[in-house]
Request: fold
Amino acid sequence: MKRTTFALLSMMAASGSVLAVENWQGLYTDLRAGAGFNPGDNGELEFRRADGSDNRAAIDSAFGDNFNGEFNAGSLLGAAIGYKFQQDRWVYGAEFSLSSADLSQNQSAFSATPATYVERREIDLLTHVSFNIGYASELPILPFFRLGASYGDVDYSWQGNSGAFRGDNGKDDRNIGYHVGIGVEVKLNGPLSLTFEYQYVDLGDADFSTNFSGEQDLLGQNNGAFNAFGNAASGGTNAQGSDDDFDFQTVGAALRYRF
Reply:
């Protein structure tokens, strides 16, 4: 009995010693797809007089509580290239990714005139430079954490049917921010693997303002636009979203080829 027990223990020890830590080191490239979304606070449109005077009563009278902010979820499609360096169980890496994006955010207001005011910002290109750290085991699964810089090509637009005079819209911007995320990579047959990950992306202060003004009629009578926004000579009123940062979350998967 003792010999049998000893033999079983020896076999278990031998089989355990055969298992080695998975090797993840090397160059790789991948194709990826995902989605971006933001279920949190997306702000609303705010109107502030350019000369600093208080127009809150006029704005409240014209708009009431008809302010809204929404994020339009969309797709991300792209590719990446990177390299991993492994030291014992720790796996360090750097990665560059480029994705086309279809993500946008609206901040809007609706007046009693009636009139619609919508400021929109959207991304059609998103780039990440990431630094990753993972922990390897005997299993073909690598959990990892990533942190890095993000670049977004942000386009701005104004939509609406207001009778107020619309001035400067601001300009499109190229914003640099950061991202942080977690994920897991799973080896398939041969050099292929699948990755699944979640990221939070913040492109920083990506906002702009649109200027509105109104004029008295030919008889010198005030109208809604004049009361709410003031005239052009006073500088009018700037409409700007209350959510300055253009931030969102992403989930995605990638098919990776390891060289």
Residues 12-17 have pLDDT under 50 and may be disordered. Residues 132 and 146 are 4 Å apart (CA to CA).
